[in-house]
Each structure stands twice: as structure tokens, then as C-alpha cells.
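Bench notes, afternoon.
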Amino acid sequence: QRSRRVWEERDLSQHMAMRRNNRVLFALGAVAAIVAYRRRNARQSSTEPPPPSPHTNAVGGPSTRKRKPGAGIDREFAKRLLKLLPILIPSPFCKETFYLALVAALMIVRTLCDIWQIRNGTSIESAIITRNKNNFYKYLLRFVGAMVPIAFVNNLLKYGLNEIALCFRSRLTKHYYKEYLTGFTYYKMSNLDSRIGNPDQLLTQDIDKFATSLADLYSNVSKPILDISIYARKLAQNIGGWGAPGGMLAYLAASGIFLTHLRRPLGHFTVKEQQYEGSFRHVTSRVIASSEEIAFYRGNKHEESWLTHSYEKLESHIRTVMQFRFGIGMIDTLVAKYMATVVGYYIVSQPLLDISNPKFLYSSSNELQEEYYRSGRMMLQMAQSVGRLVLAGRELTKLAGFTARIDEFGEVLKDLQQDKTNKNQLVRSGSRRSMNDSVTNLKSGDRSSPPAGLEWGQDAEIDLQLRGTKEEEDGVIRFENVPIVTPSGEVLVESLSMEVKRGMNTLICGPNGCGKSSFFRILGDLWPVFAGRLWKPNPSKIFYIPQKPYLCLGCLRDQVLYPHSKLDMLKNGRTDDELYRLLESVSLGYLVDTREEGWNALDDWQDVLSGGEKQRLAMARLFYHQPQFAILDECTSAVSADVEGIMYDECKKREITLLTVSHRKSLWKYHEWVLQFDGEGGVEFKSIEGCQQFGS
């Protein structure tokens, strides 16, 4: 008998050695396959151009901003996530904390329920095998009685996770929309900076995906860790000693390190995919927004080619990611699922196969079978928990990509609020006409004087630092040596000096592209003052009306009050009757009379009203706010001459000083001064008396 046992032990040791050799060969083959795949993918990535940006730099070429390092599970990812945590969980007593604690408690209860089901299920199977009817019905009725509480715990856990995701999304959305709409940040991001090409993509889809991914990760990491700790303790009690749980945890550590290293490119893939998604979304939205212009030009074929090109880039990238995930998925499944199960079977079988184990020395076959079922199921659950924890690394890598995107968005928002943009250099000289000559002279070494207040930098460039100043002064607009510079880095006017006091109605004229609208953007704080000094009243005392007025979402009353609300109107002691008189002054009283809801009528005003009605409504809005200065940018081009005259007379009656851009001769009589741009970098401010009238 002793000899037979020796031979059995020898056979067993040989069998285990063969299994170890097979596993080593399999692991080496898997590593070789994944390394080969990653090398092939790296070669493809190195030849593929980066995703296009809708913006260009000052010289018309592609944006040259420094690319951030790829997103991965590293120290930088931890820093980014820690920066977002105060936004997600603002205090220990917020609702997010409550739901996190609730989910943690429910996960403990669910794990205990799983252990109870394993024990109760084993007892049911044992009763069936031993044909014990009393025990069978006893344990079966226990299971029936526990079904409702277990189902309640499971679904309450899902509800808690959904609430966490929704709360995270709400916190981030409200925070970033507040930052995005602070001051003129939203304008600067689209017009003065090129780092974020598609803020709509970030504010909607990326934040949603980040919140969902973070909430899922909380469950996918916490639940397996909890399961492993509880099952390890139970297994140590059942089997005897911590050898079996320790072996499974060692496998967890080794497989986790191995798979995390292989998944590193997924973070970069996620960032790149969202960039392509945003680009495709941008091209599609352009077609929707400009559908009428495209239809007039019959440009559908051209737009189709751009849409197809944009989507093909996205499709190609997604297919590359799918192929990479296929290879990684194979390794994930084998290592985290099947191999974990094999390790679990091996570990749980050793105490039972050991004939000399004192714990099972006198156990019957039924007792051994019941112990195996119980321990085996616990080990299987533990192995599956190990697998889920290893696979959670895949979601963690994906989360790193979303975190990098949102963190970059937050950094850009902070920079723009401090007037820091990546368009900070200027190439060209002072006028549109001499621009090409200036570039030629620069290449030949001839450096003419830069615009006032600006300095030449490297490579014949001018560094655009915010050396200009703005000061608030009531009742006057004064420019002193202020250059007019576009966001693309083009100097339209080297130096502008002028002063407009209240009552000095000024007509602004000049050819297209000479700097008239740019002058207004500087005056309206949309563009910075790079040099010189600017004095102007509080922004609430300057009102701007463009050629195409903006009509907001809301009722008819909101169109007149914008950007005020009904509550603001009531606080200021204004009434609907006063608003009606304003509409009557611009011949729009019928808008209220012909609608059953009156001032509360809701409609798509941008489409319902004609061009002339929009411009007259904008003038009624001007009369309501009654500022000190009004900037009128071709705002009566769709209005008849008689109505136009009535509106300008009303402006004078209300003592609103006008700065008007128009090419109509009929408007000269309403102004006393003229600011004339020559289109070659020159500008002149003078009295309108004696000036030769021009225009239509």
C-alpha cells in the first residue's frame, strides 16, 4: 500500500509538472502574439496623421499646439481624477456621499446573500442526493422566502449605481457650463483658441461617458474586492489555512500587472476616438446650420464628400480599436476568466485530494461531496471576482481617456478666463494691402517698425502680450494708441486714437474687412486690448445690435427683454404695457395682438419672423434697455427708409448715442461724426460736416 501511494504521488507530480510546462508554453505564446500585434499597430499609428483640427494658426497652417502625453493608468491619471473629485463630491454630507455609502452597504449585503445561497443551495443538492425529503422542502422553502429580499437588494444596488452616475454627470455638467458661460469664455474658446475644437462634444457626450464609466468602475472594483476578502476568509475556515486564498490573490496580482501593461494603448485610443467623433459631429452640424445656403449653391455633393471623409476616418479608427480589443479580449478572457477558474479548481482540490489531511481523514463520501460543492462554489465565485477585478482594468484605462479629455477642457477654461490663449503670436505688418510685401521684406531681413505697443519676437513674429489697459469711465468711449488685431494674428489698424462722448453720434464706414466689426469686438470686450489704453462705460451701458439679431429660446416677451428675464423686468418696475408701446414704436404691435397667448406665446422666432421684423424687434430691445451708447452694425438693412427714420428719431429722443455702421446715405443726417477706415491700415476720426456723402 505504501509503494502504491509512492507511485501515485510520483504520477501526480509528473502530471502537475506537465501542466505547468503547458501553462508556461501557453503564456509565452500569448505574450509573443500580443507583442507582435502591438508592434504592427505601432507601425500603423506612426504613419497615420493626427485628427484634423477645425482651427488654424496665425499663418494659416495647422495648429501647432503641444500635444499632451497619452492617457494611461499612471500618476498623471491619479492627479487628474483627484482634481475632479471635489467637483463630484463637494462635501461629506452631499447626496453623492449618501449614495456611495448606500451602494457600499448593499454590496456587502449582496455578497452575504451570495454566501447564504451557496450554503443553502448545497444543502438542497445534498438533500436530493441523500433522498431526504424533509431537508429538501426545508431548504427549498427558505430559498423561496429569501427571493423577494434578495431581488430587492439587487435592484436597489442597480438603482444606487444609476443615481451615482446621474449625480456625477449633473455636478460636472453644471460646473463646466458655469465655467464655460463665465464672461466671454464660450466666445474665446471658439474664436480665440484652438485647443478645444468641439466643446459641445465635451459638454454632452464626454461628461456623460465619464460619469457612467466612473460609477461602473466603483461597482466593478469595490464589489470584487469585497467578494474576494469575504470568500477568502470563508475558504480559509472551510479548507483550513490561507494557502488557497493566498494562491488566488497571487494569481490576481500577477495577471493584473500583465494585463494592465497590455491595455495601455486603450487610453490613447479613447481620446483619439472622441476627437474623431467631435470632428464628425461638427461637420454634420454645419450642414444642418447652413442647409439653406448649401441648397442655393447645390452644394450637396461637396458636403457629402466631406461628411464621408470625416466618417471614414472615424470608421477606420474604430475598426483599429476593435481589432486591438479583439486581441486584448482573447488574452483577457483566457487570463482573467478561464485560467482563474483553472487555478481555482486546482487550489480547492488540493485539500480534498490529500489523503493524509486530518480535517477530512474520517469524512464520508457524502460529507466530502458536500464540502467540495460548498468550497468549490466559493472558490468559483472568488475566481470570477478575481476575473472581474482584472477586467476592470480595461474600464479603468477607458476612464483614463475620458479623464484626460475633461481635465484638458477644465485647464483651457481656466486659461481663457485669464486671457491666456494659444494664439499668442502675430505674423504680418500693419495693413492688409502691404501684408505680402511685409512678409517678403521680413524674409530678406528688412524689419519695419511693429505696431505701437507690440514687439518683434523670434522668426520675425510679434509677441502679442496683453500690454493694453481698460478703464471704466462713464459717458465716454476713448481709444488711445490701440491696435486692431484679429484672433488669427492680422493687424488691421496699427494705432487707433479717438474719443466719443455722449451725444456725439458717429457713423463708421469703410470697405469690407477693414476693421469695423473688429473695432466693435474690442469695444465689447470680445477681443483683448493688446496695447494702448481704452476708456469706456460699464458694459451694461453699451448695447450691440448686429445685422442678424439673435432671438433666444422663450416667449415673445423674452425677445424684447433679452438678456433680462421677466423677474428682472418686474424688479425694475417695468410692465407689459410699456413693452407693447415699444413694439408699437417699431410697428410690431400686431405680434402681440395676433397671438392668443399674447406675450406668453412660444414659437421658433428665428424662423417665424422675417428679416425686417427681426431687426425692428432688436430695436425695440434697444429701447427697453436704453443704454448710453448703441452699436448698430447694419441693423436696419432690411427695414424700409421711413421706419428706419422713425427708429433713429426714437434713439435721439431717448438720448442714446449711436455708433452706426451703414452704407445708406439716408443715415448721415442722424450723425455728427465719422470714423472712416481706408482699408489699408489707416483710420480717421473727424466731424461729418464738409465730408462728401457716399453709399446707397
